[in-house]
Amino acid sequence: MAPKHGRNSSSTPSTKRVKKESSRSSSVTPPPAVQDAVAFSIKYPIMNPMDGNEEYNNFIIQSETYKSNETVYVKGKTEAGIEPKDFWVARVLQVRASNPQHVYALVAWMYWPEELEATAKAADEVSPAGGRRKYHGSAELIASNYLDVVDVTSFAGKVEIVHFSEEVVDDAVSEPNLKKFYWRQTFCRGTNKLSDLPVYCICNGHYNPDLLEYEHVCDNEACKTLYHSECLVEDTLTKKVLRGIPSKWNGASNQ
């Protein structure tokens, strides 16, 4: 599965998926729909296909109407895709056209976890091989500030992706609708970093929505930290063993 190109800088890559055009960038705030959730700035590439063309709110491909701010599948990995992960995923930010045969969209790419490179840095946990982290759910994508201009004929349908905000409700982490794709984490192309996620338990782990892994919660109203059963058992046994060792030996190494 080929990753997206040119993520080591905030400028538009010279080798693009659909069009090969020179570009320049102008820094703006994130789109209103995600401005509160995305903590990085977005640099809009101003591409030749977009320059001087009229802006549109919607367009039609094979009888399906697409609008700005919708999320779409994009062909590129394969022309004969069947499964969702056979396609790239992007959010449509702006549409411009010079005529009905030349319609282009400014899009913000979203990543399947497997598309993340090994150089993408996680706050507390990094897989040496890159790609999916152990806390990523099966229906999870990662939003990014990596923008491109693409020909709308590369679109392969619309996809609903909702934002999932982790909250502890009734002594448990809220769960996303696993029948829908969702995103909760962002990837900043300029820093090559993933955004931080809440940490839980003694192990400082992250929440995987596919797993029922945090079975206990601290009764202290000021704490309410969630814990794994196995981590609590291991911590208790470790403390019990240490209490039975003379203090002068605690932390001592064998000579």
Automatic annotation (TrEMBL):
<dbReference type="InterPro" id="IPR043151">
    <property type="entry name" value="BAH_sf"/>
</dbReference>
<dbReference type="Pfam" id="PF01426">
    <property type="entry name" value="BAH"/>
</dbReference>
<dbReference type="InterPro" id="IPR011011">
    <property type="entry name" value="Znf_FYVE_PHD"/>
</dbReference>
<dbReference type="InterPro" id="IPR001025">
    <property type="entry name" value="BAH_dom"/>
</dbReference>
<dbReference type="GO" id="GO:0003682">
    <property type="term" value="F:chromatin binding"/>
</dbReference>
<protein>
    <recommendedName>
        <fullName>BAH domain-containing protein</fullName>
    </recommendedName>
</protein>
<feature type="domain" description="BAH">
    <location>
        <begin position="64"/>
        <end position="198"/>
    </location>
</feature>
<feature type="region of interest" description="Disordered">
    <location>
        <begin position="1"/>
        <end position="32"/>
    </location>
</feature>
